[in-house]
Amino acid sequence: MPPRLVHGSPEDWLRRAQASLALAQVHGEGLLREDLCYQAQQAAEKALKALYIARGQAFLFTHDLDRLAMGLEGIGIEIPESIDQATVLTRYAMDTRYPGGFEPVGAAEHQEAVRLAETVVAWAWTQIAPPGG
Predict the structure, then answer these.
(1) pLDDT per residue as tens digits for the range 40-84
(2) Quick count: other Cβ atoms within 10 Å of Cβ 6?
(3) 3-state helix, strand, coil in the chain (%, to 5)
(4) Domains of the chain
(5) pTM summary value
(6) pLDDT tens, 83-119?
(7) Torsion angles phi and psi, residue 59, rounded to 5
């Protein structure tokens, strides 16, 4: 899909990222960790897309975090290793989003997905509103 410009401010997108992160952090009876990890992926995706908006750039409508990160590098945003590591979250938007074809997500895997998403969202906020900026 070609890049598109979208509505909303970077802060709007980061608030949505934080809302997805809050859903990813939920624990309780009847919840599937795969779905919670999907929300972690969504948090990271929305946070990365907020950076495109902050720079006035269009982004690809994709769930592929690696492609989004590479695109950010292409517009001059340096991607730290901790953010690059979070691109593994892409699998939760593709492989585990619907039933079948994957191993169930365990508690440790879910916890790691949340940690990675938290890292991306926190980093994105620093890029939108850098300290002293």
Answers:
(1) 999 999 999 999 999 999 888 899 999 999 999 999 999 999 999
(2) 13
(3) 60, 0, 35
(4) 10-127 (1.20.120.330)
(5) 0.91
(6) 999 999 999 998 877 787 788 899 999 999 999 999 9
(7) -130, 160
